[in-house]
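PROTOCOL LOG
Step 1. Enter all chains and additional molecules of the complex.
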Amino acid sequence: MTVQLGAFYLFPLFMAGFVQTNSNLEKMDCYKDVTGTIYDYDAFTLNGNEHIQFKQYAGKHVLFVNVATYCGLTAQYPELNTLQEELKPFGLVVLGFPCNQFGKQEPGENSEILLGLKYVRPGGGYVPNFQLFEKGDVNGEKEQKVFTFLKHSCPHPSELIGSIGYISWEPIRVHDIRWNFEKFLVGPDGVPVMRWVHETPISTVKSDILAYLKQFKTE
Amino acid sequence: MTVQLGAFYLFPLFMAGFVQTNSNLEKMDCYKDVTGTIYDYDAFTLNGNEHIQFKQYAGKHVLFVNVATYCGLTAQYPELNTLQEELKPFGLVVLGFPCNQFGKQEPGENSEILLGLKYVRPGGGYVPNFQLFEKGDVNGEKEQKVFTFLKHSCPHPSELIGSIGYISWEPIRVHDIRWNFEKFLVGPDGVPVMRWVHETPISTVKSDILAYLKQFKTE
Amino acid sequence: MTVQLGAFYLFPLFMAGFVQTNSNLEKMDCYKDVTGTIYDYDAFTLNGNEHIQFKQYAGKHVLFVNVATYCGLTAQYPELNTLQEELKPFGLVVLGFPCNQFGKQEPGENSEILLGLKYVRPGGGYVPNFQLFEKGDVNGEKEQKVFTFLKHSCPHPSELIGSIGYISWEPIRVHDIRWNFEKFLVGPDGVPVMRWVHETPISTVKSDILAYLKQFKTE
Amino acid sequence: MTVQLGAFYLFPLFMAGFVQTNSNLEKMDCYKDVTGTIYDYDAFTLNGNEHIQFKQYAGKHVLFVNVATYCGLTAQYPELNTLQEELKPFGLVVLGFPCNQFGKQEPGENSEILLGLKYVRPGGGYVPNFQLFEKGDVNGEKEQKVFTFLKHSCPHPSELIGSIGYISWEPIRVHDIRWNFEKFLVGPDGVPVMRWVHETPISTVKSDILAYLKQFKTE
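Step 2. Run joint prediction.
Step 3. Record the structure below.
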């Protein structure tokens, strides 16, 4: 099932000034020879009620984000809401994965995470408009399998991996996620397309996605 | 100025079944030859507005507690409210010191801590009825001076200090605080009287304080 | 079986100028209520050929030392030789336990340790004139049982335990050995008598032992 | 000054059975667009007497190796002697850099390293027939500049970087050297040509160098 994008939807957004095209240094195109798709993997929703097979997102453009409540980048959460809203018509689905491996900035239980987002940080009643999954590892021995697949389908994000004081997983690998709020875009066929470092502004992520959608449209 | 305790106030509480006397192993009587008092020290209130000199608590029985929002013992917070309420008439003042050194379970900024307590953990609208101070260290090179004084005025709480994965201070010392929610009782003369390990139930802390107040009264 | 000490042997040594009596701060008298003896424990000799039951030292005054080749204190090795030689007539037996837990300064295999001492540090053909045992842990989960017994039979040596960069055992305990070359003296009944911090000069250890032997003699 | 290689010297070695060509997975060809050469860097010899500018090796094929005495791979030392001897006629110069960053397996002082090699490991009177330099870092904030240049001139050697227990440098980077005995071959123009992981047998390193020399000869 492929997503039909009306070019005329894309163009206004592309030009609407929401989009600052940063250098591609931050965007990494994933490898061309990836075998397998995200459809081989699954996860429990944050409230533990639903076991979601990622193949349910076949045909969608899925943005995987490892998130945390008490991070200096937690302000990206509301921006992800905006991104989800704006690009939903184009088949974008944002998925959030709380993780406590980066400076232990997601200390809450699954049942506490939405409360923390709503009342503490970003606070002000914030509620994600995209699916969050159960807290889990994205690096190291107990990393969630979908993140093993995503990480090794794309170039590593930076020469710097981190400092021992903030690394709480074993072993340390080149393709490890560097910090909260790294992002992977997966195409409608379940194959990873792009990866962004955590500091990449959402606006850049958005413009990269729009450019990709446009190109996807013409192809 | 010494606190006049009506023995008849103490006795009912002592017997009222709220009190389970645990073995004294958990309570440690501080050293008799302590020099100096807490009145030499000070701290900023959690909101940063007030610089409090601890000598303002002269004549009070002050309970110092290092606290954290996302700790397995955070349920002690409401119990500390009850303790403060019940023993306020006897001159007890509870003081809370948020600290992120134990498993990094206090990741929030000062401005976020009360929100986390109110809405996330313990949540349910909880508001401490005692003073909280600015987040700070209680162990290691940058430990708050009052905690240096408190720790070295009393025996260390346990043979086990901890595991490297959860110790995020330097250097490691015998008298270091072991985890969130350790407690020190300071007498009305500013001299430390008792120290409890973090796991000590508040009910035991209460009965120890009542026994101490009773003895203090008769002396 | 008690060691008969000729007082006249002790006195000249005591006065011979080899002995500088340092403050007792460095010496710690072990606890009086110790149960058990070193005779419950054993170890393999460095070359692995012999399994030594410590009860074979019944009647002797045994000095346990955790040693390392590449330590700033390795110069104590030749001084331990001198100590063994001088106090052998009085029943002193020095036992060395190579250990790699302090800054990883004993990296060699058992078969390499004597070579390292002889040719590298202290070098110059040095050969210990006392028994060395197989390399093993003295702190943490896999610590040798005799060191668990020794450590908990005596006060801990210092408030400072160490810095995380140099601590490679789990968990961290108050009575842990602080560095290479700590020493425990055990009486002829197998019960620990004294403990010294690593920096204590051997001359001080010697004078403390002589004073103890003298007292032991009169008692 | 370029090295004239008599093809007839290369061919017999290439075929002489000393050479097992392993998969190139272990060999990494350095980047083509490297700017700068090793000639911009220098180091002090192990005994501290000589300050060597690497430009003195212009025209030579230089093999940089970070070494350690108490490593499971220290047996590569005698093999490096053989390599130096066999390929000296073809302009190969082996340079060894003792480093204590991998499991702290080079604890000795500069003055002790040759003693350790000669009498302990590999022992048996072993003396390197190639230049050793002063002990120093090859990763992290204080890494020697020549290793910064070498590491970033070639692909990183493996996805696995290591486990926190054995990493004693900050920060951790993708191109960091993984363990003792990694190797870099630098051409006669001072530009890095090849990099090998630490486990690569010296025989493979040799056959890779011979193949390179042969190709270098024909070009």
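Step 4. Note key features.
The radius of gyration of chain A is 16 Å.
Confidence is low (pLDDT under 50) at residues 1-25 of chain A.
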